[in-house]
Amino acid sequence: MAKQLAFYVDINKCSGCKACQVACKDKSSLPVGVRWRRVFQYEGGEWIDQSGQMIPSNVYAYSVSSACMHCAKPICMDVCPTSAISKRDDGIVLINADMCIGCRYCSWACPYGAPQFNEELSVMTKCDMCHDLVDMGERPACVEACPYRAMDFGALDELQAKHGTFADPAPLPDPSITEPAVVYTPNKVTKSSRNANGRLMNLEEL
Amino acid sequence: MNTREWALLAFTILGQTAAGLMIVLMIVRAYLAGKAGNEVADRLTNRPLFMVVPIMALALLASLFHLGSPLNIVRAVPNIASSWLSREVVLAVTFLVFAALYTYLQWRKAGGEGFRVVIGWITVIIAAVYIYAIGMVYMIVTQPSWNTLATPVTLIAGSLLIGVLGMAAGLAVGYAGLKGEEMKAISTALQGLALSAIVLLGIEFIVLPIYMGYLATQGGAALQSLTMMVGPYGAVFFFRLLVLFVGAGVLAAYLYRNASVAEKEKTLTTLAYSAFALALLGEVLGRFIFYATHYRIGI
Fold first, then answer.
1. What is the residue range of B174's domain?
2. Is residue B142 within 8 angstroms of chain A, CB to CB?
3. Confidence of residue A205 (pLDDT cuts 50, 70, 90)
């Protein structure tokens, strides 16, 4: 079996510019409302009023770029009633549009919001890791587009050897649910799913 | 809720109505056959039986409106190995086929008494597994307000409640003109159905506060669901409880009292139909809240 492929994101370098999201939409010609890659702005802390002067208390903000995690335990694949979702030898999880009946059950199950309904095609769609490019030896569009070089792509074990195994930045869910094939480098304020005390911002952009 | 979600609501409600009715029907039929003979049992239970297949057919028709690409269902390979949704659909279709077979046999008096009873009970077993499967569809680890024991328990209790009161309505209609043993058998059956309704209502009313307490302690998405149930959907939530209490409690108690009184056919029919309608409405409102207040964990 080939090595499990994975995405890598360095939260230190990410400015939340959404170039990856736009590159993804462009490469895969996604309609309005379908965003295979999304960038979550996560903020926490508060401002305390001390006799008219506002003092910041543990205020933080960071961005998390996320797409389909091509999980080791893909819950979408388990629940799909028609076996339209499959996992390739290299770990890429794909939806076969010819077999999808558009029941959206996978979108109820996936904690990363990866499977999204395409109204034009009437089927579920999601990040395919640009497998057409990958099969030609190239890298996914999102990774190539990042102006900060905050993203990388490759074999999961190699990325983990280089960057560690952290896969749990809030607001992402507990990775033990689906074992996502992803590595993040946290910055100094990054929370995990266990101590998430912030909130998502600019929800209209998600 | 949009059209697709209403289709889903119709599929589950109609499906559990047909399956619940089938289960209760066979139990009542066995009782009546023991008390008053097969001929009487068939005559009294055939009317509600003829409702099962049309209701189940409607359920499957409604399910298609939930799908983005319903035509693909022909090409689809069911994933019964791991998907409860796949199992639910396969069981729904199997139940329809067996219910249709049993109905045909009963209608034509074909295949002999013993064979018909066997087919009937096989249909009941499929119906029971089907109801269980409907509940298991929602046992998704990332949906905390669904992923509790309360989901299958409430679904089974709700299905039987609709079945019990639907059967009571079906029996009450056939009550007129009966005498002696037949009349006694049917009135005892009605009393049993009314009592069962009250017990099932009790189960639902015990499970609900435990379930809500559980959601409250879980925090996160579970707490968000609970907040929606008692907040924006609070009016629907309490109206549902009222409807269930009046239908399966108050009206069922009156049904019990009037079942043994002669010359009460009209009252009985009205009571049974009203109780059935309210139980059905309660289940619809419950399912509406179920779909409207679920929150998936994650992003």
1. 154-299
2. yes
3. confident
B159 lies in the same domain as B295: yes
Is B149 a domain residue? no
Q: Taking CB atoms and an 8 Å cutoff, what residues of chain A touch B75?
A: 98-99
Closest partner residue to A79 among B75, B76, B85, by Cβ?
Answer: B85
Per-residue pLDDT, B66:
87
* Per-residue pLDDT reduced to its tens digit, B9-18: 999 999 999 9
Tell me the C-alpha to C-alpha distance, in Å, between residue B175 and each of B45, B103, B268.
Answer: 11, 21, 9
Distance of CA A7 to the CA centre of its chain: 9
Rounded (5°) CA angle B223-B229-B231: 95
Q: What is the tally of structural domains in chain A?
A: 1
Classify residue B176 as exposed, middle or buried by CB count within 10 Å of its CB (0-12, 13-18, 19+).
exposed
Rounded-to-integer distance, Cα A112 and Cα A167, Å:
12
Question: How many CB atoms neighbour CB B100 within 10 A?
Answer: 15
Q: How far is CA B169 from CA A152, B21, B34, B44, B49, in A?
A: 66, 11, 21, 11, 12
Instruction: Write the ipTM.
Output: 0.89
pTM across the whole model: 0.92
Q: Does B145 map to a domain? A: no
Cα B17 to Cα B62: distance, rounded to the nearest angstrom? 14
Q: How many structural domains comprise chain B?
A: 2
Q: Is residue B147 included in any domain, yes or no?
A: no
pLDDT at residue B179 in the model: 74
Chain B CB contacts of A83 under 8 Å are: 76-79
List of chain B residues with pLDDT < 50: none
d(CA A203, CA A40): 9
Look up the domain containing A142 and give its range.
5-67+127-205
Structural contact between residues A9 and A35, judged by C-beta atoms closer than 8 angstroms: no
**Interface touch A81/B296, C-beta < 8 Å:** no
Contact with chain A for residue B4, Cβ under 8 A: yes
Distance of CA B144 to the CA centre of its chain: 24
What's the per-residue H, E or C state across A3-31? CCEEEEEECCCCCCCCHHHHHHHHHCCCC
Q: What is the pLDDT of residue A191?
A: 94
What is the pLDDT at residue A196? 86
Q: Does the distance separating the beta carbons of A66 and B298 come in below 8 Å?
A: no
- Cross-strand bridge partners of residue A95: A85
